[in-house]
Amino acid sequence: MPAMKRPAASEATSGAPTKKPAANKLTINAMVDDIKMAASSKDDEEDNQLRDKGKAEKFGKLMKAGALPLAVVHMWQIESKKAQSQRQFQTNLINGLFNKQTDGSYKMNTESHHFKEYQKIYVQHVAKDKKKGMPRGIMLASVFHGDSRAMEASLAKGELQSHKDDAGMEYLSFRELQTVEVKTNERGETVEGSKKLKSQEAHTLAGLMSKMKWEWVCKKADQTRLEQDAHLPDGFLKTLGKAATACDKLLKEGLKLSKERGLAEKEGALKAAYADLTKHQSQIEHVKTWKELPNSDGPLTKGALDNFLLDIARDVDKYNREIESVKGILKARQRMAKATANEQAGNFTNESQLAALLLEQLFAWGAMSPQLIQEIAALAVRDLEASIENGQVLGDLRVLAGIGTNGAYKNKCHADLMNKVEHLSQLPEPFRVRVPFALPFGESLQGMLLPHQLFASLWRDYPETWRLSVLPDEQTLQRFWSAVDSHPQMESHPIRDVADYKSKVAPLAVHGDGVPVVGLGKGWSKVMTMFSWYSLIGQGQTKEILFWVWSMYDRMSKGSVSEGTRGVFFTVLRWSFLCLMEGKWPSADFQGKRHLGHHKNHWAWFCFFVLI
Asked: Quick one: which of 285, 193, 306 has its CA closest to 241?
């Protein structure tokens, strides 16, 4: 850059100034002639117009940073050499390019008429002959339409040149000649969408960027550098990198899917979206290489960058939806073909995770009604028929959906459900006994899951639950008895009369507690007393080791503990524990009435000990 002279206190004067055409009628040739004439005055050595020091320093910084518009660089490096005084030409260029702000800073005046003319001159002289380069894959797809042989032939002829950037990425370029007609009254191009985004567009951009996990926040410092120095923010360039990656990935997927047959209804949309993404990929490379928006002569603003990103994000999202739509069609065809083959072969599966959840957790623990189970099962069947996720028909889910005649008779759902799941559970039926209650209820038939029933069933049919909740192993049992051997309650205890009790007798306990079941958290809540039993050496969670026996509303009880409601219950409970003590299945009920026939657990063996 030529050395700059110190500005004088006042402007130097020359002879009578040359009359200029009106600004709105200034032609390109007149603009160039005007600059040349100003530089060829008789006071050339003293400068017709002195160079502003502050503007010159600003110009130098932008030139060094590579942030000047290409049109200005062209005027500085090329057109200035054609003038009689190169320095005066450059001085006029510097002084007319910037405006001094009230705070002392300098802002590039890209809206001035002179700058527009610079841009036109640059387009006239530069756009005629240029090289266009792009990555090998993009060149193959966008220019040669996937014909690799034609591209290799062009390389061999020298029509294409191979280059690599600093990162080692290969670019293929070709020379492009254009005939440009420049009209003197033509207006310079402006940045389309340079204005601030509207509220709806801003929300759209934010939603699309969040969806695609793109992030760009234009900080105040970034915006200042953008407006003053035309410096693209790093966050914006990083987001462009993500956009380029997304475009490249989608284009590859689109090329792969285009080879599939039977997609005529999607072919037009895929081609249009492919063309848009190819265009955006080229634009992104232009921005990353030249640090300016393509086809834009106006100032760089946040609004311009937002609009540029919005256009890319919309087309990326559109093409992605088209790609996913095509994938969905192909997957649906595959699933339908697989499902048809399975149905024809009679391949059904009874391993529904949903059915296991509904039965083993929600229904078994009383968290869901039979009606709700029916509704969920029916919805699941419709979903499976629509999507056929795994290409199989889930038979057990169809069974659940059919209870109560497919839900037509709600009052039949429970009975149907119990009939369907009866074979799944090996637990015994509750023991039925008539229990007296206070009026107006009177005597009522109650079901109790007695300790000796459940104890035998767990030992016989559920060995894993037995080891978890009742008796883990003999070593654990012996450690327990050794730990309580010196306890005062063990003195003269009948259990000591049992031979090998430390390795044969499981310690059990009875638990009773009031539980609010109506009006929870209210002063008028209703409480039920829950009776349960558990093993003192069980190792599971509370809900896994505590086994329910029976429950009742306290206000409905009749009589004392030894008679009436509680009396009958404790009589039955005592009988159940005595059965455990004997280690044999009872041959008579709690009233001494003998059973007819034999029970499946007739020969089952138990041992127990109760701590109350």
From this structure: 285
